[in-house]
Amino acid sequence: MSDFPNCPKCNSEFTYEDRGLFICPECAHEWNDMDTSAENDENVIKDANGNVLQDGDTVTVIKDLKVKGTSSVVKMGTKVKSIRLVFEGDHNIDCKIDGIGAMKLKSEFVKKI
């Protein structure tokens, strides 16, 4: 057969290469040879601007966020230092916010400084 890898989405063997990308004609998935597994995307958390976040980063909240169970609000522009990334659930940042305490945030509501 061919020397090209099977499609990581549908496992089709009919893949071909075009301009450095592998393309699957059955499901139209495109990928390069560096990220042949879908697991690479699962371990990457990005902020609202698409920057990759890492443990220990400092981020800023981009909109007012209500804190469940209280009348407190995390104001837009609040700086959050030393975040910890969590890869389970939809809230993927653990952090401590001054005046509020420990909480979880969604990465789509923060931007990296």
TrEMBL record:
It comes from the Bacteria. Pfam families: YjdM, Zn_Ribbon_YjdM. PANTHER family: PROTEIN YJDM (PTHR30305:SF3), PROTEIN YJDM-RELATED (PTHR30305). Belongs to the YjdM family. Residues 4-32 form the Protein YjdM N-terminal domain. InterPro entries: YjdM, YjdM_C, YjdM_N. Residues 45-112 form the Protein YjdM C-terminal domain. It comes from Selenobaculum gibii. This is Protein YjdM. Coiled coil: none annotated.
